[in-house]
Amino acid sequence: MRRRAIIGALLLIGAGVVLGTTVFRTDIAQATGLAQSVTVVNTAANPVPVREQNVDAHGNINVHEEGLAHVSVLNTVATTNTIPLSAFSFVAEQNPVVSGPDAAGISYAITSLTFTNDSNFIEADGLGGEYGTPASGCNFVQPTIVDGPIVRIPPHSTLHLDFPQPFVISGQSGTASCLVHGAADFLTVVGYRF
After folding, report:
1. Cβ distance 127 to 146 under 8 Å?
2. Pick the residue with more confidence: 85 or 183?
3. Which end of the chain is more exposed for a tag (fewer CB within 10 A), N or C?
């Protein structure tokens, strides 16, 4: 009984193969013709064909001007690499005031900062501008505070930040300006006022 079932199944599979290769052969052949060759990556040996649309009768690309443009320089432009007159380099040893009190509305452009942490703990420090009316020195009554860079310095470490494009702490209204920092034992600030 079992043998008859296996033989019947084999005959059914064989009939399906014969039917597929004879009756449905044209459908199968047409289905393979639907695929087209496609180049996915073009190399120098097989470039993508491109044709410029804006060409004249000779195949040259059209432009607005014809010929060479005449350029003349009337004056010379003097350039110098100078340090701004208001540049500063300040080392704050356990002193929160980096610069100030300065005139009202002064902005600070910071080009580099070096924080040193001599403690056994992580220190958070930052640089910022304080603007307003000082009670004395850089102690303001209700100051406007503009935050600058804020960092976390590992214990017994030095962290240096360079700003090729200066980090600007923008001036605010008030009668005085100060540049201050937080908790690091030593901070070196290089920049300029404007």
Report:
1. no
2. 85
3. N
